[in-house]
Amino acid sequence: MMEQDLLPVDEGRIAFQNRVSENPYPETSWKHNEWQFGWDAEEQVNPDLYDHAAGKFTNQNSQFSPSEKRN
Among 1, 20, 52, 53, which residue's Cβ finds the most Cβ atoms within 10 Å? Predict the structure, then answer.
């Protein structure tokens, strides 16, 4: 799948893998929710990589689990 063919849910998942937490879509867009769904799903696979209390990714150099390397 080419980058331009990605759905917002895939973009959100990839954003988490790249340690990006800012949703690029306005909250009024359906794409915002889809992107967030992908980001949240990826965060559940690797829960120790994002510190919600601090609002940022941890400094761990952890590898992503094989289950989320789907692209």
Answer: 20
